[in-house]
Amino acid sequence: MPGSGSASPAPRKRADARRNEEALLEAAAAAFVAAGIDAPVRDIAAKAGVGVGTIYRHFPTRADLVVAVYRHQVEACAAAGPALLAGADSPYAALVRWIDLFVDFLVTKHGLAEALQSDDATFASLHEYFLDRLLPVCAELLGAAAGAGEIRTDVEALGLMRGVGNLCIGAGKDPRYDARRMVGVLLAGLRVR
């Protein structure tokens, strides 16, 4: 209704535009794993099956693309928690599987840590976004496993996520170091015996 003062909803993207964006995010994520965040845009476009111009329509700058990939992957990790909890044999099994996804997320962020520490304002809110989205999921999984008597009750989500994160630092730099194995040791230490 014109003149009513109510804001109109944001326009919805066409289905093909949503598919292109999804393909770009997946292709960029794979390219960032293989070559870091400086992967050539033309390679990302080719992998997504779109033209370079399509990337720039969706993501005007490389920083915009990096942020979108990061947020997309955080959202996938956040959405996985409740789904795993609903479908797992036990809350502990759901927690272990979610932490495995979290490890995948952490060890594939080649170059992102440097970008997050840069002076680019585009990256400033990503760490807070990461914590806001993933801490509640981890807390829910921990609470369910503790409530079922499967794990200790004195572990908080932030402590567990930091512990896992610290075990993943440098995972790709030394082939003798197995971050996933060390995270498994950490998770085994949560069990009630």
Describe the structure in your own words:
The protein is globular. The chain has helices at residues 15-35, 41-48, 52-58, 62-87, 91-107, 112-116, 126-147, 157-168, 179-188. The N and C termini lie far apart (64 Å). The longest helix has 26 residues, at 62-87. The chain has 9 helices and no strands. InterPro entries: Homeodomain-like_sf, HTH-type_TetR-like_transc_reg, HTH_TetR, Tet_transcr_reg_TetR-rel_C_sf, TetR_SbtR-like_C.
State the fourth-level CATH superfamily of the largest domain: Tetracycline Repressor, domain 2
In total, how many beta strands? 0
Q: What is the average of the pLDDT values?
A: 88
Overall form: globular
**Treating each run of at least 4 consecutive H or I residues as one helix, how many helices?**
9
CATH architecture of the largest domain: Orthogonal Bundle
- Topology as a string of helices (H) and strands (E): HHHHHHHHH
Question: What structural class results from the helix and strand content?
Answer: mainly alpha
Tell me the Rg in angstroms: 19 Å
- Approximate helicity band: 55-70%
When the domains are counted, the total is: 2
CATH class of the largest domain, please?
Answer: Mainly Alpha
Q: How many angstroms does the end-to-end distance come to?
A: 64 Å
Poorly predicted segments: none
> Biggest sheet, in brief?
none
CATH-defined topology of the largest domain: Tetracycline Repressor, domain 2
- Which range does the strand content fall in? under 5%
